[in-house]
Amino acid sequence: xxVSGSGLGSRLRRIGINWDRVDVGDxxxxxxxxxxxxxxxxxxxxxxxxxxxxxxxxxxxxxxALARKILPLGLDEIEFGNxxxxxxxxxxxxxxxxxxxxxxxAGLHITLIADSFGDYERPNGTWSQDASGGGWIHDFIHALPxxxxxxxxxxxxxxxxxxxxxxxxxxxxxAVARYHALAVANHVDVPWYVTEVGQNLGDSNTSPPVNPGxxxxxxxxxxxxxxxxxxxxxxxxxxxxxxxxxxxxxLLDSDDSPRPAYQALATWMAxxxxxxxxx
Length: 279
Hints:
Elements: H1 9-14, E1 19-23, H2 31-38, E2 42-47, H3 56-70, E3 77-80, H4 91-104, E4 111-115, E5 120-121, E6 127-128, H5 135-143, E7 153-156, H6 175-185, E8 192-197, H7 215-228, E9 233-238, H8 260-272
Parallel strand pairs: 1-2, 2-3, 3-4, 4-7, 7-8, 8-9
Antiparallel strand pairs: 5-6
């Protein structure tokens, strides 16, 4: 949500939100994590260096060093990269890094969360597609070394239509069920983390705008489906709590005024506080 970075911890805690996803880059500086914790906000830590330029050995060393910093803070979950499929990684290169990183924290009880995706274009210009027995999830799983094919969890960013997958089956809220099914079909049944999802109202170069009149209902749908339908999802994080340079995606606008979507979140939380252990 960006709760900690916006200094909105107390406001969000009042409506029952007490988790945030915090980007720590290569893990050398975790000041933002400590700041969030001082606000009473626990953190899902995002390890987010330029993975496309790292050797598996370097990724493993940096990840292990980060793990040793956050464990004394009571944190034990690390998302391994942000949308790496859009930043130069391939399933094979990412699998090599993930396997090395996972091995580096063996015994530390860290949940290491892998990025998921659907159809993708290979470096040679051809496509690997879910419908043809390929796709990112399949290719990532099968690129892991056979003797260390262990995945702690998957993350997903299901932006897009609420009731259909976009062309290529690589976006939209139904991707949560689709991607989970693909992983299970490939013998990986692990928790899933929706580490970003939201509704852009405009001024974004990365996603088409939605009707402002449906944003509140969409926010409620994300929450309700996660609680009652997508039982494998353990974590849900909205992008974003507040408008920023990426567009008008916020539950609050740029001057912290609440949109109807924020009230929808507050209303839903009031009705469901204490419902299960998911966040």
